[in-house]
Amino acid sequence: MGCAQCEAMSKIQLGQALGQTSTDKRVDILRLIARTGSISQAARDAGVSYKAAWQAIDTLTNLARVALVEKLVGGAGGGGARLTPAGQQLLDTAQALEAARQQVLSGAGVLASPGALALRTSMRNQIPCTVTAVQYKGRMVRVVMSLGRGFDGAGDATESPLVSRITLESAELLGLRPGMPVLALFKATAVLVVSAQSQVASADKNTLPGSIQRVARAADRSEADEYAVCLAGGMLIAGFGMAGEHLKKSNEVVACMDETAVVIAQ
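RESULT FIELD:
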């Protein structure tokens, strides 16, 4: 191993690149490249497009801050790809982390929920959901999710769904399908809380009914107040009202957010 490779190995940001578990599709693609020696074959085996496989490599490379895959030119097969020493280190570490994680959870008698132990984010709203439909719209995908039953056992299939609009490559990398448990994330600043009587219908906007449980008044009465909205089943989401409109505790409201504001973690 040359000095340049040694330096790259010492600088690899394993914590950044392995924020998720080794079941992450991106790590799976690295594993398949190591096994097959081909990015296109790895994409086929992972069930994603060649473009999506490259997106996965690029994302992990950006997070690790060092090249993880190198292309091979020539040879009997016309070239291929292999992991760099840093890429192999990342893959080995991912596998070790997952084994240790499963051992700890098994010893504690705990079943892991999607991303709940590994994910750190500034997004305050993190809602466990189940994918009910994946709708393809050209290069975009609408992922329809059910909030299901909440903490108090309430909630059913008739409640308003939560929809996320993502790219085709992102949907492929997540391997989304009906029945899959996921985590929906969105910023409090992306949520507009309005009175239930307001007309907020929109083709590309989520509208979740609920009631205000907590109110944090703005210091300036002309600014927007912050609300904790209780949805069916007891789940809470944070959002902001319109400037100058001061809703009260127990008011029936609708929490609105664009479909593009909802991020999916798995």
